[in-house]
Amino acid sequence: MSKVTRRTLLGTGAAALAATSFSFPSLKELPANAARKPKNIIFCVADGMAMQTLSLADLFQARVLGHRSYWNWLASQDFAVNGLQMTASLSSVVTDSAAASSAWGSGRHIWNGQLNVFPDGTKLRTLHSLFREHKVKTGLVTTTTITHATPAGFAINCDDRDKEWEIADRYLEGGFDVLMGGGDKHFNPTKRKDKKDTYAGFAQAGYKVAKSRDEILNARAAKILGVFWDGHLPYTVDRMHNAEMAAKVPTLAEMARTAIDNLKGSSEGFVLQIEGGKVDHAGHANDLGSIIWEQIAFEEAVKVAIDFALQDGETLVVITADHATGGPSLNGDGDEYFDTSAAVDSFVNLKASYDTLVPAFGKTPTADSVRDVVAEKLGIQLTADEAKGVADGFAGQSPMKFSKFHGNRGGTLATALGNHTKVGWTSGNHTAEHVMVTAVGPGNSQWRGVTENVHYFDWLLGMKDIRHSNPTMTFAEAKAAMDKKHAKAQVEEDIEALEFGVHA
User: Fold this and answer.
1) Within 10 A of 32 (CB to CB), how many other CB atoms are there?
2) Are strands 224-227 and 208-210 parallel, antiparallel or unpaired?
3) Mind spelling out the 3-state secondary structure of 454-479?
4) Which residues are within 8 A (CB) of 331 and not within 5 positions of it... i.e. 6 or more apart?
5) 37, 133: one domain
6) Residue 499, CB half-sphere, CA atoms under 13 Å: how many?
7) What average pLDDT score do residues 355-360 get?
8) Does residue 24 form part of some domain?
9) Exposed/middle/buried for residue 434 (C-beta within 10 Å: 0-12, 13-18, 19+)
10) Helix/strand/coil (H, E, C) string of 88-121?
11) What's the rounded mean pLDDT across residues 300-323?
């Protein structure tokens, strides 16, 4: 195989990502951290990152880029502490992102779909509100909409994670110092149902409002709102091969660097959440190329945070996931499993996300269109049976339609591609396993071992000598309150339907 470099992989459309060095310099060991407390906290979240995702990205980089992944290197350093996080929510052993982030945000297990609120309406104090009360600066940076579940769960109360327009308004009320991600449709008066100009509200409150990469690079302002796409930011693999996207949308590493530069220097320090949110989206889609490049982009941002922490000496960096998604696993295949190694090398040819791939199939995909597009964009030569199976899947006739987890369009496509990539997926859903956590800097010793997600709230507050205990609720109490809430909603819906019928 010819030598492949980061530059040839990423191309001119990804100059910003390529510019971030992935070299691993020799670093002096930090002083003993057990009794020290940090001035600043950077909490990095690879949303939906299963251990298998971390492994796939590491294997790919080792074989194709010539080095291990940054997280792999970091976890092996003497100054890093490693552990596992348990991820259950109040409503299930499998959490969603809202409940997962709220576990950190309030120190309580929360019902899936809600943000720091119990089903009976009880609102819990959040990390953000408590830190702000103590004059600690706060920031949220993500590759999803900035109003999405993970950033919101760190910060605000809302009974429904999907009320993103409401979350945008609450961010303005909350007085955050830095907010960056996607989600123009939740701020723009021409796209909001209520026609409210939320951008104007932020501008009036003294925020620098930025809508492009150029506006945010090297930006300096007391407060910043950066929104760079209508919805979630584009996948890294698409941005790498699209000059227009690369020019408009900053990388997560660039947003992280700008956020840190604008938050540092405060007398009481800062707390920043950095989320690689599209790792989760790629997991839901069973999209191998996307999940690998999103993981790499996330680790680029982690390196920005760690470089700052090692230079600063007063910053704790915690790197983890909120839950796992999709369960991608590399399977042995061929004599002595030789075919698997060759498959990893071929990942370099995965040059489009499913967001780009699927529309290219056409409105009514045929076996020929599927085969041609997959060959062009993924470098995979599907067999006639595989191509037909994918086309049938998009017509609602998947050959695996009996499978609850693989009989949909994405599952059928991923299964056909898996014959070539050797990667199989558990489902397109969240899964229940523990997730990795690595901590570097003052106070990092607490993140060693296996811990429930709800303990992070007390640990993070404790780093700033803040104490708060929110109310508790059992599953039985929460279930009863949720059943009552659903019953009331059904009655209101029935009444509305009746009135509509009468007036019609």
Assistant:
1) 10
2) parallel
3) CHHHHHHHHCCCCCCCCCCCCHHHHH
4) 340, 418, 422, 423, 424
5) yes
6) 6
7) 97
8) no
9) middle
10) CCCCCCCCCHHHHHHHHHHCCCCCCCCECECCCC
11) 97
- Output the CA torsion sign for 153, 159, 164, 165: negative
- 101-107: average pLDDT: 98
Q: What is the DSSP letter of 428?
A: S
Q: Up-side HSE of residue 358: CA atoms within 13 Å toward CB?
A: 15
Q: One-letter amino acid identity for 308?
A: F
Instruction: Work out the burial of residue 147: count CB atoms within 10 Å of its CB; fewer than 13 is exposed, 13-18 middle, 19 or more buried.
Output: buried
Write out pLDDT tens, residues 435-494: 999 999 999 999 999 999 999 999 999 999 999 999 999 999 999 999 998 887 777 776
H helical segments located in 195-287: 198-204, 213-216, 236-240, 243-248, 252-263, 278-285
Q: What is the DSSP string of 258-274?
A: HHHHHHTT-TT-EEEEE
Cα separations in angstroms, 459 against 54, 294, 456, 465: 25, 28, 5, 10
Examine the pLDDT at 504 and tell me if it is beyond 50. no
In the numeric block, the tokens 């590759």 are attached to 143
Residues 6+ apart with CB under 8 A from 368: 387
Residues 369, 384: one domain?
A: yes
Q: What is the pLDDT of residues 409-436, one digit of tens each?
A: 999 999 999 999 999 999 999 999 999 9
**Is pLDDT at 363 greater than 60 in this prediction?**
yes
Judgement on whether residues 229 and 247 belong to the same structural domain of the protein: yes
User: By the 8 A CB rule, do 377 and 241 touch?
Assistant: no
The number of distinct structural domains making up the chain is 3
Q: DSSP letter at 35?
A: T
Whether the Cβ atoms of residue 271 and residue 226 lie closer than 8 Å to each other:
no
First to last CA, the chain: 70
- C-alpha 308/C-alpha 468 separation (Å) is 29
In terms of phi and psi (left: phi > 0; alpha: psi -120 to 50; beta: otherwise), the region of 145 is beta
CB 186 within 8 A of CB 166: no
pTM of the model: 0.92
In terms of C-beta density within 10 A (0-12 exposed, 13-18 middle, 19 or more buried), how is residue 276 classed? buried
Q: Could you give phi then psi for residue 186, rounded to 5 degrees?
A: -95, -5
Domain that includes residue 404, residue range:
348-424
Please tell me the chain's helix, strand, coil percentages from 3-state DSSP, rounded to the nearest 5: 45, 15, 40
Residues 450 and 501 in one domain: no
Contacts of 357 (CB under 8 A, 6+ apart): 373, 374, 377, 378
**Same-domain pairing of 353 and 243:** no
d(CA 35, CA 39): 13
C-alpha pair distances (Å), 364 with each of 308, 345, 406, 457, 463: 50, 32, 20, 49, 56
In angstroms, rounded to a whole number, what is the distance separating the alpha carbons of residues 291 and 478?
Answer: 34
CB 469 within 8 A of CB 454: no
